[in-house]
Amino acid sequence: MGFLDIRNVTKSYGSVEVLHRVDLEAEEGEFLVLVGPSGCGKSTLLNMIAGLESITSGEIAIAGQVVNHVHPSKRNIAMVFQSYALYPNMTVAGNITFGLEMHGVPRPERERALRDVARLLQIEHLLDRKPSQLSGGQRQRVAMGRALVRDPAVFLFDEPLSNLDAKLRVDMRTEIKKLHQRLGRTIVYVTHDQIEAMTLSTRIAVMNAGHVQQFGTPKEIYDRPANLFVAGFMGSPSMNLIPATVAVEDGTPVALIRDEGGEAHRLRLSQPSLAAWAGREIVLGIRPEAITDPDGADRQSRNIQPLRARVSVIEPAGSDTFVATPLGGREVIARMRADATARPGEVFDFAVNMDKAVAFDPVTEARIP
Amino acid sequence: MAVATVRPGVDWRTRLQDVLPKLVLSPSLALILFFVYGFILYTVFLSFTNSRMLPSHDWVGLANYRTLWGLSHWHTALANLAIFASLYIVICTAIGLMLAIFLDQKIRGEGVLRPIYLYPMALSFIVTGTAWKWFLDPGIGLENTMRLWGWETFTFGWIKDRDMAIYTIVIAAVWQTSGFVMAMFLAGLRGIDNEILKAAQIDGASTWNLYRRIVIPLLRPAFLSAFVILSHLAIKSYDLVIALTGGGPGRATELPATFMYSYTFTRNQMGVGASSAVIMLMTIAAIMVPYLYAELRERDR
Amino acid sequence: MSTLSQNPLAGPALRAAPVPSQETAVRTGRVTRVFIYLVLLLFALFYLLPFFIMLINSVKPLGEITGGNMMALPREWTVEPWMAAWSTAQIGVQPTGLRPYFINSILMVVPAVAISTLLGALNGYILTKWRFRGDTILFGLMLFACFIPFQIVLIPMARTLGILGLAGTTWGLVLVHVVYGLGFTTLYFRNYYAAFPTELVRAAQIDGAGFFRIFWRIMLPVSGPIAVVSIIWQFTNIWNDFLFGASFAAGSGAPVTVALNNLVNSSTGVREYNVHFAGAILAALPTLLVYIVAGRYFVRGLMAGSVKG
Fold first, then answer.
1. pTM, 2 dp
2. What class has domain C82-304?
3. CB of B117 less than 8 A from some CB of C
4. What is the ipTM score, two decimals?
5. Which helix (H) or strand (E) holds A80?
6. Pairing of strands A281-286, A240-249
7. Which fold does the domain B71-300 belong to in CATH?
8. Looking at residue B300, what is its pLDDT?
9. In this predicted model, what pLDDT tens digit does every residue of C117-140 receive, in sequence order?
10. Interchain CB contact of C15 with A (< 8 Å)
């Protein structure tokens, strides 16, 4: 049993069920990220943890206590909102201490807590300002200060970085991670940005259409996505999902992929269990970084397969170069070193690290174990 | 140990917070339900009774409505309302639209002109009525002034003329509300994206065509609002008639609102008065209900 | 285009931001402009004329009106008509002037405005931040109540006020104006609060503030602009009301509009036009003053609740 337990939770509006039997847990001090496209139910779930939405069925427990019917202010949680939700009529100091005031904390103690938090977040010089006089990044800090000052058992973050510009977002991301390492508190963090999810979390719940698609560590989710949705959603550029047919040659399974000319390419599969799929269709999932030029191939790999294919587009991105090639009816993206020599139109020798490849059942969309 | 009452149910605070909003809303709601909808039902009921000076509960069916529609007085009131409402709406809209378009041409002194156009809206209809009553009075007002200024044959005695008096109501009412209609159209004009206007001018549209083909069609919502507001005001018009003409000369400026009042409170025909009020309500509801319904639906989406 | 700025039920017209003064990009020629200025000035005269006539004739002796030119400036200036209108003119049977009725109007308007605005604020808060099933229908019912022809409620209201012992009293009129103003004040606050982020209410809930605390500490402090709009609107409407005053408070409890009408339309004695004009200006003074001081909010109120009664 975890510190935060979400057991069999569903949510319905009238007859429409928007969350279906969600089971999640977080240990004390864990950084749990709920990630998914908009409308997947992640914010609804967060609001249910906060007590801002009722729970249709199932249980949510914090520190062993079922909180289904506990008022938000009594759940020992604090929340940072997407819009920051700073009270426009109060100063920064007033915003940060409002919660303490409502809980009857005496003034000297409030002042002390305020000083501590302000120092931690480096907003001491802003305490007398109104929210309207702050920049986006400063508002973000104040919103975090308001949560921190409560010293709650669980912090809830609802897309806290989505209103910041790109550079500030990266900075604040680092800062949230530092804060988490320093305070060691349990955090539930909602985002639609898979990079935020990967960088911040200790565990990720990938959600779509009201279902938890996969719940695991960032590495598990990245390397072994549970299904086609997770494979496509996590990672940028996203995983190449290539239709292929399985054949068995010399007792080992091989994937056959047709290129634009109809010619079949053979890639020996590292996963022996796929032999059972002989003669059937699969979807082969290969991350762009597993397709390189032969010199850039991973030396640790036991199964590098050569692949000759025509290059269609080159996108230099500074640190890497992305090379696209049409395979299996898709544009397959390969991630090369910046000094890779591929040229558009030429036939190129790719090296595919099949140890990193995963296979999906095209009908159920689940990963083939 | 005491009997465990700590059933993990809803805690009292959450429960209180759930009912508090409805509790606080309920007095307002009760007031509205009783004083508006209850009263409407009661008036509808009275319109089917033989109430005279005092409300009576003797059911007479549609007798009052039959009486009402048989009264030439009521027909006069309706005819007057038709003349008044149509002229009032058309003239107010025309003046309002024209002033708004003109004021929108980067006019110097707009800040002075706009409040001048609008101030009549802050006045009571009784005040407006008083001012126009004496200004239009042929004995001391405009007619007299023109003659003193040397236009010996000038006559302007509409307010004393049975056939023309209703038009004096139109004049005073237009004076009071056309500035407001101007403000509505001006807000609409200011809401139009200037890039559309620039594009149209680059496309070679003349100013006339620009307004006729692009701007005025874009003002459709403002036209709708103006129509709803003005028609609603016209049907409810009471104060202005009382102050300006008192319904006269004769019955020349009777409107349904004055008709209802005099039948109910001075002629002791409460049943007939109630039935005329019901007809007024139905007329306004026919305009307001679809409008409000559309507005609220749009907002909810 | 934005239909919001003129849509009476839409929120943004009510926001604190000033009316957008984005002027048109249409260019006009010189001759057209002269014509435009001419028309605009003529209309300015049209709107000013009645008030100008009231003003100059209120400071003339009666003889200059009956025997002279209404448009002419007074040859002999006098404040007599003003004094008479205020304190000695015959209203009904009493030579009291408008003063007692003016006081009636103040006693009626202040509590009616305060109560209806406060209730409207609470209602708007509930209808936007504590939504429940069917709230739009309830709001629709409240809103429609603003637009009924009041003739439909006159008879039962007269009876009810009689039963409550409020007939002919200022408190009776306060009740009437609160009830029939509620829809508008609710409309104002509802639209204003609808644009106010609900996340703030949620944050306050997590911070431990309850229903009333959120209202006092979070909502009310930012409600200044809309409260002004609502107060001005209610003040103007209630002050200028005639129908309810004439129906439920004729006699010594009458508001100033009813008294003015009695003064002007009494058929006995000499018609003292100059006193009538002075009285009319006196009765209009409070709302005119509000218009001059807070015209911006007045216009915003008209637009926002423009489906007005």
1. 0.80
2. mainly alpha
3. yes
4. 0.84
5. strand A77-80
6. antiparallel
7. MetI-like fold (1.10.3720)
8. 58
9. 999 999 999 999 888 888 888 888
10. no
